[in-house]
Amino acid sequence: MTVLKIAFRNMLRNRRRSATTALAVAVGTMTFLLFGAFLAFVFTSLETDAVRRGGHLTVFKSGYFLLGAGDPAGYGIARYRDVAELIRTDPEVAPRLNIISPTLTVAGIAGNFSGEHEASKTFFGVGKVPADRAAMRRWDEHGIGQRDATDDLLSDANPALGYVGVGLGRVLRLCEPLKIADCPAEKRSPTLTSGLAPALAELPAMDQGGSAEPDSPHIELLAATVGGAPNVVRLDLSGAERQAAKELDDNYVGMNLALAQKLVFGRDEAKVTGIVLQLRRTEDLPAVRARLNRIFTEHGLDLEVRDFTELNPFYAQVHRFFGAMFLFIALIMGVIVLFTVVNTMTMTVMERTSEIGTSRALGVRRSGIRLQFTLEGLLLGAVGATFGLAIAIAETLAVNHAGLRWTPPGNATSTAFRLALLEHPALILIGWVAIVAVATLAALAPASRGARLQVVDALRHT
Amino acid sequence: MEPTHQAPVVRLEGVHKRYRSGEVEVPALNGVSLEIPAQRFTMVVGPSGSGKTTLLNLLGCVDVPTSGRLEVCGVDILSLGNDAQADFRAAHIGFVFQTFNLIPVLTAYENIEYPLLLLKLEPRDRRKRTLEMIDQVGLAGLGDRLPNELSGGQRQRVAIGRALVKRPSLVLADEPTANLDSRTGDVIVDLMHRIQAEAATTFVFSTHDPRLIQRADEVFTLKDGVLQ
């Protein structure tokens, strides 16, 4: 107790130097915590976005992940409703499951042959169950809030309704009906499928989906069926949605699963390329993944499971990049704190050499001297880190109430900007403890030097 | 190691102490042999550089002889390790320094109490003995003052209280009146003499001060590191 009292009073004895040191420690702590809070928000924001779009886990037919992108028919999951039911009713999976929804990816040619314009382009389409996707978009484990995204562009009631990426809408000359901005003056040139319109008209009427008004914005989608024959469906457009990457934006078509299945499988058995699982909590992902693998093995199903980090390489890249940046900044802050405290404690030991001699003469052991000065470093660190924490919390509250918005990396729409400090007590604890530990370690070397002094030499020091 | 408290309290046999200053070895004590019986008011006198402080440092176990034998309270000091020497000092030796050497962030009360903390005494005993010592050294009412709020004489009283509160076998005082005016010095000498008599403790001083020398039971004179 007396050691602590002496340490505390010595800290107050040279107020200016202690305040300067504590301030440096505070700045280090604040930087560590605020950057950590920013990254925590970025990570949860990216995770939320990925999970809302594509769930936590997707079940594919074995080999689809590596080879099946160009062959949705060949890698389709047959009797997918039975598989989904098997998963949904599993006693280990069921309590952790939020949504399970089938999906079908398809590639082909999209064409706009209405009016005076005629334009076409290859597309990449995803067939979804609208109600499931609407429910998935509401997932918010981390309290991120909703994006400014265009919702409800698909409809369960009208399977022919869909949407395109803003870039694809622009290429297909749909700027006016889809209200797409930044459409430059048109340069007419032959497109990929010039002259395709008459051919499409000759295709069997049964393959032309949709029942909307002829004048409503729409496009034709052309793809190969399971048997290799061309098939065409009409997609009535409810709007355009900006996608995160330019390449995706220029190719994306979102459509109802039923329409996508009609395009790929025609009258054959409808399959899907994936079964998406959205869990209630991300922390359940490893357990559910392991359980799914056991289910597939037990039932002899030739299926595999991939998680959202595998399906979104960008997520993993951003995670690694920011993680490395965080470590780098933490290291710099640690070094600053280390050298500041070493400098302060070295000066303190020098100034109090005679006091060290007196204490040793009175019977304090070397370990007692070491403890005394190490404790002073710890106190400086604790005061500085606590002050830094207080500033970080104040700044977090200010930022979170400022109503700022931003567009996270890899996203096309903005969301509320927040610093996720108070939601991560582990970050606060680790940050505080780490900074105090660095300050304590920094004091150890000067403290040991003081403890090793010969008593007579220390007493002679003036 | 438990000391044996039969006289003498201090025994030196053929003690040499040399310091190295660069390439040169400087002798501070040359074959000093002496015995100091218990409960004596003993002076070590001699001109500057004669080895008085070196001798006191050896007696206080804060330094070790280059050669020779040193026993304090019957314990062979050279046989003790660093921590054991510290524990020995804490239990048996009190120091009064010329420059007082009080812990500046502790009050007068806390400075006097400090050696008792090292002995791990019960809080109640600690408080009782500290308050008694404050009264004995004439600092009643000044216990809550920091050293820089006290006069030189008051600081030396605190230092004396700190040296004696643990009831040591041996108190070493290196020129205790050198930094005090003559009147205050007289008061401090009287105080130490009275307490020495009351506590039956052995005092060893190094001094130039004739007022102290007059009060000594025994005087050792050093010159060029040799006992005269």
Query: How far is the first residue's CA from the last residue's CA of chain A?
Result: 28 Å
- Radius of gyration of chain A, in Å, reads 32 Å
Largest interface: A-B, 23 and 26 residues
**Count of helical regions of chain A:** 17
Q: What is the element string of chain B, with H for helices and E for strands?
A: EEEHEEHEHHHEHEHEE
Helix content of chain B: 25-40%
Mean pLDDT of chain A: 88
CATH topology of chain B: Rossmann fold
Secondary-structure element order of chain A, as H and E? Answer: HHEHHEEHEHHHEEHEHEHEHHHHEEHH
List the domain count of chain A as a whole number: 2
Number of domain modules of chain B: 1
* CATH architecture descriptor of chain B: 3-Layer(aba) Sandwich
The helix count of chain B comes to 7
Give the amount of beta strand of chain A, in percent: 15-25%
Low-confidence stretches of chain A: 205-210
Strand count of chain A: 11
Kindly report how far apart the N and C termini of chain B lie.
33 Å
- Tell me the fraction of residues in β-strands of chain B, as a range: 25-35%
Describe, in plain words, how this protein is organized in 3D.
The complex is a heterodimer of chains A (462) and B (228). With 462 residues, chain A is an alpha+beta fold. Chain A has two domains: 2-47 and 316-460, no CATH class; 63-301, no CATH class. Chain A has 17 helices and eleven strands. Chain A has helices at residues 2-13, 15-54, 64-67, 80-88, 130-137, 166-171, 175-178, 196-201, 246-249, 257-265, 285-298, 308-311, 313-351, 353-362, 366-400, 425-452, 455-460, and strands at 57-61, 97-112, 119-128, 161-165, 218-224, 230-241, 252-256, 274-279, 303-307, 405-406, 415-416. In chain A, the strands form two sheets. Chain A has a six-stranded mixed barrel with strand order 2-3-7-4-6-5. A two-stranded antiparallel sheet of chain A has the order 10-11. In chain A, helix 1 packs across helix 15 (366-400) and helix 13 packs parallel to helix 16. The relative contact order of chain A is 0.19. Mean pLDDT of chain A is 88; it is low at 205-210. Chain B is of the alpha/beta class and 228 residues long. Chain B has a single domain, classed as 3-Layer(aba) Sandwich (Rossmann fold). In chain B, the strands form two sheets. A six-stranded mixed beta sheet of chain B has the order 6-7-8-3-9-10. Chain B has a four-stranded antiparallel beta sheet with strand order 2-1-4-5, covered by helices on one side. The longest helix of chain B is centred in the last third of the chain and has 18 residues, at 182-199. Residues 1-5 of chain B have low confidence and may be disordered. The chains are: A alpha+beta (462), B alpha/beta (228).
